[in-house]
Design a protein that fits this description.
Elements (H helix, E strand, L loop, with lengths): L1 E8 L4 E7 L2 H9 L13 E8 L2 H14 L2 H9 L1
Antiparallel strand pairs: 1-2, 1-3
């Protein structure tokens, strides 16, 4: 099982969209010391998940959401 997940940081008022087979473990890595976009702050929380049978399906959905380039659409998705 693979999961699309959306994280939110209140500090930078931003969302991050990703894919993982273990969302909790992946969140731990986002919160650890590393380089990359999520390293900027340490207040990321999981606000949304979707499950998929294959990694390919999850990656396709991730690409779809990232192509929206719209915080408003992500917030509508989370609220639904």
């Amino acid at each position: 099982m693979f999961y699309l997940y959306i994280l939110f940081s209140e500090k930078i008022n931003s969302y991050y969209v990703g894919v993982s087979s273990n969302v909790e473990e992946r969140l731990s890595r986002h919160l650890s010391n590393h380089k990359g976009y999520t390293a900027k702050v340490k207040d990321w929380i999981i606000v949304y998940t979707e499950s998929f049978e294959t990694k390919t399906e999850a990656l396709k959905r991730e690409k779809q959401i990232k192509n929206w380039k719209s915080k408003t659409m992500i917030e509508k998705l989370i609220a639904s």
